[in-house]
Design goal:
Layout (H helix, E strand, L loop, with lengths): L4 H71 L6 H7 L5 H17 L3 H12 L6 H15 L5 H8 L10 H14 L3 H13 L5 H13 L15
Helix pairs in contact: 1-3, 3-4, 4-5, 6-7, 7-8, 8-9
């Protein structure tokens, strides 16, 4: 009996289904173990990644708490725990490591051990792995401690790139550079720098006040004149 078009179509579907089932069975027999192994490894890797994320977060929180303790002690005028501080100077997180190194150097300077503080600041300034703001601050503090033993030109050469109006460390670096200019007899360079610092609102108020006084001594008016209110 000849197959009708409907029966022929159904027959072809059954054949296709049988072929697919046979192909699937053959594929699974050949690659099933490898697929299961890949699935297990993938789940294990994902589980490991989740554990690592949790571990990293826990470690970061622990380091943050330790850093808070060290900073509280340093800011309060006390002495941070030496072992805890040393451990933080080797932290995996660059920010915490740099902050701990700054605290360690600052504690040494406060205790009168300028040699140790200078060495610590110098090492930071030369550490290319630290972000530039930390290295710049370390260089400024190192230079400040060495100021009396350095030639004025050495101070200028070190800090002039940082003593730029609007730069983050303009006040701290600019003050040292301006004083170095004075020691060199270059008041024509020192005066305008003091005046610029006095008028820069980003510079700390204590430095602005000193700069305003020094500019005045040199005959430069660094007093800001408030803008007149506009008429409505």
């Amino acid at each position: 009996m000849a197959l009708t078009p409907q029966n022929s179509e159904a027959f072809m579907r059954e054949v296709d289904d049988a072929v697919r089932e046979d192909q699937l069975a053959t594929f699974w027999a050949r690659y099933g173990r490898w697929l299961l192994a890949a699935l297990v490894l993938g789940l294990a890797a994902f589980g490991g990644w989740l554990y690592w994320q949790h571990h990293s977060k826990t470690q970061a929180e622990a380091v943050s708490e330790q850093m808070d303790t060290v900073l509280d002690a340093a800011i309060g005028g006390g002495t941070p725990d030496a072992k805890q501080l040393d451990a933080l100077t080797k932290a995996d997180q660059p920010g915490y490591r740099a902050s701990a190194q700054l605290v360690k150097a600052g504690v040494a300077a406060r205790k009168g051990d300028a040699k140790a503080a200078i060495a610590l600041y110098g090492a930071m300034a030369a550490d290319a792995k630290l972000d530039k703001p930390y290295r710049d601050l370390a260089l400024i503090r190192q230079t400040s401690l060495q100021f009396d033993s350095l030639k004025p030109q050495q101070v200028v050469d070190r800090l002039k790139p940082l003593a730029i109006e609007g730069a983050p460390w303009f006040g701290s670096a600019g003050e040292l550079v301006a004083i170095a200019y004075m020691k060199m007899g270059k008041n024509d360079l020192a005066g305008p720098m003091f005046a610029a610092m006095a008028k820069d609102e980003k510079v700390p108020q204590s430095i602005r006040s000193r700069a305003r006084q020094m500019a005045g001594v040199m005959g430069i008016d660094a007093v800001e004149i408030p803008a007149e209110p506009s008429e409505g």
